[in-house]
Amino acid sequence: GRALLAALLDELRADQQVVQLIARIRPENTASLRAFRGMGFTEVTDRASDHGSGGGLVVLARDPRLPIEKA
After folding, report:
1. Which end of the chain has fewer CB within 10 Å, C or N?
2. Measured between alpha carbons, how far apart are the two ends of the chain, in Å?
3. Selection from 70, 60, 67 nearest residue 30 by Cα
4. What's the pTM?
């Protein structure tokens, strides 16, 4: 969970072309929601979800260029 996300964020931090990571997670997958939120992802409005193709997923996003906040 979190270790893999931390490794991904560390890898992408140097790539200034990647400015946003988006995760679409089923609301019942509380472990994934907790892991992504714990790594600084925040809930966003997803235009695809607004038009019915999002399937009721929770959409989280994060700028990988920002440092990881240590809890």
Report:
1. C
2. 15
3. 60
4. 0.76
